[in-house]
Amino acid sequence: MNRVKKLSVIFVGLLIVSLALHWIGNREKSSKVNKELFAVADTTQIENITIITEASTISINREVPFWTLNGQYKVDPQLVYLSQRILSHVEVQRHVSKSNFEDIKNELKNSGSQVTINLKDGSEKQFYTGGNTAKTTAYFANDDLTEIYIVTIPGYKSYLSGIFELSLNQWRDRVLFSSSWRTIQQLKIDYTSAKNQDLEIVFDGNFLAVKQVSQLDTAKLIEYLEPFEQFQVNDYLDQGNFPRYDSLLGVEPLAILALKDIDTKKDQVLTIFPKIEGERFYLLTNKSSEMLVVDERRMERLLFDPSQFIRD
Asked: Can you give the pLDDT at residue 230?
């Protein structure tokens, strides 16, 4: 074979290799997934988020001045913010492995969350979410579960699907009091036991006064009222899920707390029950007979009597 033929053979070989590499490259490019497949570019356009799980259907609606939950409760604004951040930054990393596909598909179908995002322009995104047993890897899948992906947010280590696994009570706004010494008109704590002296704080037209206290320490009073500015419950309870706390509903309450604010929407009447020995929480019920719990340290911080406001 002369030199020309040798060069021709080499050229043809290189051409074949080049074409093969080009074909492989194009195939890889075509198989790449859209990283923003599940992302919502502008979360201000979200009108509703519906989450359907095996246990419940949760509908989160944009309303003025706050988001509502199942048309009944106010949504925790921090969770709205977190869900928006996740939806705007979530990225597809890769498909799940073929060997695990069927198991993950069945898991998502049977115990995952089906999420629907409705936008102002009438469009929607629908997908399934879930994760591995350890809750360290998040899976998002299209609405017919034919494509399942591992999703992440670069630099964000938390489990992304967890936001869509919260219960209805966990989505609720936990703010119980949002009053201050400048807006409180009256605060009464009526104790059922004779061991405790009832507390009544009233606005007398100039400043707050504590009934039965003539030598009032105003600094102590203002310090006492500080927690009322942003006081949150630890959780809401559904009757039947916590029998020990359910049993308290039949016993004599520890006290009744009633707060009146300049803004009547912030008024509260709460029944406070004795703390169960060995438990860390006090059970309370509100005007709607809902059950809520507050940890002992913060609850006892409110259970004062008049003697604690006397000037030293």
From this structure: 94
The mean pLDDT of 99-117, rounded to a whole number, is 97
pLDDT at 16 over 70: no
Residue type, 31: S
Task: Give me the residue label for tokens 């009570």.
Answer: 169
Q: What is the 3-state secondary structure (H, E, C) of 60-84?
A: EECCCCCCEECCCEEECHHHHHHHH
- Model pLDDT, residue 221: 97
- Cis omega (within 30 of 0) on the bond before 227? no
Is 50 exceeded by the pLDDT of residue 105?
yes
| Integer Cα distance of 109 and 128 in angstroms | 8
The dihedral of CA 147, 153, 157, 158: what is its sign? Answer: negative
Q: Is the peptide bond before 65 cis (omega within 30 degrees of 0)?
A: yes
For the sheet with 73-74, list strands across it.
Answer: 73-74, 68-69, 57-61, 46-52, 113-119, 124-131, 138-142, 148-152, 91-95
**pLDDT cut 90: percent of the chain above it:** 85
Residue 92 near residue 101 (C-beta atoms within 8 A): no
229 pLDDT exceeds 80?
yes
3-state secondary structure of 100: helix
Averaged over 153-169, what is the pLDDT?
Answer: 94
As beta bridge partners, residue 208 has 203
Residue holding tokens 């951040």? 85
Contact 21, 29 (CB under 8 A): no
Question: What are φ and ψ of residue 187, in 5° steps?
Answer: -135, 120
Tell me if residue 292 falls in helix, strand or coil.
strand
* Helices (H) then strands (E): counts for the chain: 7, 19
